[in-house]
Each structure stands twice: as C-alpha cells, then as structure tokens.
C-alpha cells in the first residue's frame, strides 16, 4: 500500500488537529483531558517502537529506556537549568539521540533475538543507574519537587487544558514527522533491510548505518513520549525506565497492528480504555489484558488495525471484481 | 582496453574443501559467457568471491583494472558488479514495482533521504524500462512473495539489472524451471544482454541451453577451470568429456 502523499498527509494532520482543538476547547471534562495527554505520550512512544520493530524489523525489548531517559532528562533540565520548556525539549531530544547513538552502535549489528536481549540489557543498565544516582534522580523515590512549567509563547502548561492542547499538538506533529520518515526513500530502504538485509547490501545499501539512523530516530520520539509524561505527572519515576514500559509498547503495537502506520495509535487508545475500564472493576487487570492480547493474537492473528485494513481492502477488491462482472454481463 | 573482469589465481578453501583452486579468467567488456560444472564444483563460490560475499584466501579480482578484493558488497556493487541468485533473493513485502523503484533509488544514491518521498520521480523510467525488458510490467503491483517461481527469478535479475551494472553475474537463472520455461528465460537473458551491452556471466546446468546460447564456456570441476573456449572446443575437450561422462560418479548434465 502506497503511503499518503505529502500534501494529503499534511492536510489530514491539520484537519485532525483543528478538530481536536475545537473539541478540547469546549470540554471541561478532566478525565477526557487526562486521557488525551496520556494517549499522546503512549501513542508517540508506541509509534516510535513500531518504526523500529515494524518497519525496521528491530524488535527492541529496551525501547522504554529512551522513554525513561527523556522523562528524567527533561525534568532535570527544567529543575536545574531554569530554561524554557522548548529549550528543555530540544535538549532532551539531543541527549536521547546521543544515548541512542552509543547504544545503537553496539546493538544494530546484532541479529534478531540478540538485538532484543542486548537492548533489554541496556535498559536494565539505565534503570539501575537511575536508582543508584540518588542525589541527582532521587533514586527509587523518583524525582520529586515538581517539574517547573514556566509559561512560553503564551502557553501555560500548568493549566490542564493548555497541557492537553499542547499534547494533542505534539502527538499530531510527531505522528506526521514519523509518517514522513517511513514514506521517504529512507523508509523504503529501512523496510528493505528488514525484508532481506543481504540483498540490500548487494544493492549498495549500508545496512548497519540505516539501522542505526532508524534506532536514533525511534529513540528521539520515544523520549518525547517520556517527557510528555514527565510534564503530565510533574515528576519522573524509575518505573518510566523499567523494562515493563518496553513490554507495554510491544503489547500496544501487537494490539493495534504493525503493518499500518496508525495501528499503534489505535492500540494505544484500546490499551488506555482497557486499563481504565478494567481497573474500575477488578484489581486483576493484568489477567484481563493478557486475555485480550491472547484473543487478538490467536483470534485475529494480527493487530486490530491490520485486521480492519485487510478487511477493507478485501471488500474493495470484492467490489471491484463484482463491478467488472456486471460490466461484462452488460456488454 | 582493460578487461571488464579479470581474475588471477583465485583460491578459497572451506576447511579441507578447496572450493576454488587457482582460477584465472578474463571476461572482455560486453561478452557473454557460461560457467558450467557438476554440483558442488564451486560455481556459486566463484560468484561469491567476485561479488564480495566471501573473501578469497589468495588471488586478485579486477573490475576494469581496479582490484576489488577486500571491498564490501556495497562498494563492489558501486564499481559495477551486480548479481542474481541461485535461489531468488527478494524483498518479500515489496511489490514488483516498489522493489525495482527501491533498487533504482539506491543506484541514484538517494536511499537514505528522509525529506523527500519514495519513490523519487527520476526512478520510475529506469524501473519501468527494466520491468518491460523482463516482461514484468503486468506484475507491477504484485507482491514479490506471491509471484510464481519463474517471475521471482526474473525479478531477482531485474533488481540486479536496474543499477545498470557493467558486469552481471547470474547464478542459474533457469534453476527449478520446466524445459519450456527455461528457454523463455534464457531468451530473455540473451535479449537483455544484447540490449544492455554489458558483460554477462551465467551459471547453467542445462547443456542444450549452454551450447546454444553461450559463445564462450568455462568448465569448473572440483574448484578448477578444466576447460575454457567456444562450444565446439568444449564439446571436443577430452577432460570435459571425462568429467561429465567418463567417471560414473560425476553428475551427468541433463
Ligand atoms: N559458506 C560455505 N562454507 C563451507 N563450505 C562451503 C560454503 N560454500 C560452499 N561450500 C562448499 O564448497 C563447495 C562448492 O560449493 P558451491 O556452492 O560453490 O558449488 P556449486 O558449483 O554452486 O554447486 P551447485 O551446482 O549445487 O549449485 C561445496 O563442497 C560446498 O559444500
Ligand atoms: Mg551453486
């Protein structure tokens, strides 16, 4: 399936953002606003993981390290450097890109399961470092004292509604940017290295360099998901960098589907709804989530998004053959 | 003029097996040659050594005068050597069209661009030309993994050809095909060779095809070149007759 053209993707992003703003400006529903903020954070993270795992074939078990790193780096920069929020965001992006470059150089050469496990090992290292660096990070208590949110460009992110609008904006911008990456020649090359790295090398493609670039890009967006979470809870906690975050990311993209760009967004919506809904009724919410993924994985054998897309394309093909039949009959 | 491909004293062993033993061959620009030999003679290994998949233990490989031993596969392909595989090596989730467009994109040195869209507009004419030459135009939107075996082999060649190589190595283009399909395939290969004016070296098991199509035949046996010449010379060569017919253990050509 060919991706949307640039102008169409841009128009779609603008329309969705406009609708979201219109919707959010009229609401006073705190639960809804919280939902949008959490969704933005999770969906940016999950889509970045899909860029790496779905498009690049690099199933990272440690992608959450960049989510956690982004949260801590942003919160610490805000607390200690006294800079404005956009400056701290740019700093977090650069910081996570640097970390990803170091981790990536080691990991992208590794194949399949080794890649997965070494990324997991790095995640544990980052998590352990956060716990150990008490004076800086607050150790297992987390980074407390709140994240300062000085107003910028007339935006006050201490205000829940404005933070919600800002999150929606970041979500759309990040999705648009990642969509652009996967629709570029680089995106096609990344899929080539996933399908057949040997053949890609025979076409003159520097496979490891392509994989490293994808690793860094995915890490940068994961860190944006993390810093949004830090803004939301006004702090950062070791859990943000724990391996379960990576696991949740994989859960989300499996749920939503890995072959469509928006699958992880759909997965994030489902995941948050499930979480909220299930935990209202039972404390065994792991049991419920596990059952859902079993039903999706064994029942549909693909993510919900993949299922919908396949169903739609099967239907339009059926329509097309129906039409040719009727025109043949008519002539 | 320097030869398109010049190989000197090439050697490669796997453990105790000498897969390539003192092979020296020269292929002139624009020539067509076949490499034949029994199963396990070292034909694919020979291609692997030239294309950079394996590093020779000893010897030189020159492409238009330039030594390529030790260069990576990516560097070698940039010097104009492309290959297709005994078992088609494709991008399974790509359509035929996208596979070719992506291959052209890499040839244009644009495969890592992020700000523009895939495919680059300059890519389509070459991709379509090659698809047309190999008869894949009607399969343009078909996913590689769902192509028939013969079309997969054609696409494999098309992917190699798209980068406009100077030397094209084809490892058994007719492998796994029925008799009629083999002839159609080899006709396409010959037509492509005439139109592109490149050096083509192909490995082939079918003797009828080899003797009908190749102006020059190189015979590999236990890693050594035992004969090299025109079809008539090869037919009359005592060592070839011995290798193919004399010893009862040797695999007789089909
Ligand atoms: N990578 C490798 N490692 C170890 N041994 C190898 C390797 N590649 C080839 N060989 C051995 O080298 C010898 C030549 O193999 P090669 O594949 O080159 O033969 P071939 O002439 O292409 O045969 P076929 O007609 O069956 O394709 C065989 O004995 C094979 O087992
Ligand atoms: Mg072989």
Low-confidence stretches of chain A: none
The CATH class label of the domain at 1-71 and 199-254 in chain B is Alpha Beta
Bound molecules: adenosine-5'-triphosphate, magnesium ion
Radius of gyration from the alpha-carbon trace of chain B, in angstroms = 18 Å
Helices and strands of chain A, in order, run as: HHHHHHHHHHHHHH
In spatial order, strands of the major sheet of chain B run: 6-7-8-3-9-10
SSE pattern of chain B, N- to C-terminal: EEEHEEHEHHHEHEHEEHH
Explain briefly what this protein structure is:
Chain A is mainly alpha-helical. Chain A has 14 helices and no strands.
Helix and strand layout, with pairings?
The complex is a heterodimer of chains A (331) and B (254).
Chain A: H1 6-26, H2 30-55, H3 64-81, H4 85-107, H5 112-132, H6 134-137, H7 160-183, H8 185-195, H9 197-202, H10 207-233, H11 243-256, H12 263-281, H13 285-300, H14 304-330
Helix pairs in contact in A: 1-7, 2-7, 2-10, 2-11, 2-12, 3-4, 3-5, 3-10, 4-10, 7-8, 7-10, 8-10, 11-12
Chain B: E1 5-14, E2 17-27, E3 32-36, H1 43-51, E4 58-63, E5 66-67, H2 73-78, E6 81-84, H3 96-107, H4 123-133, H5 149-161, E7 167-171, H6 179-196, E8 199-203, H7 207-213, E9 216-221, E10 224-229, H8 231-236, H9 238-246
Parallel strand pairs in B: 3-8, 3-9, 6-7, 7-8
Antiparallel strand pairs in B: 1-2, 1-4, 4-5, 9-10
Helix pairs in contact in B: 3-4, 3-5
The structure holds adenosine-5'-triphosphate and magnesium ion (MG).
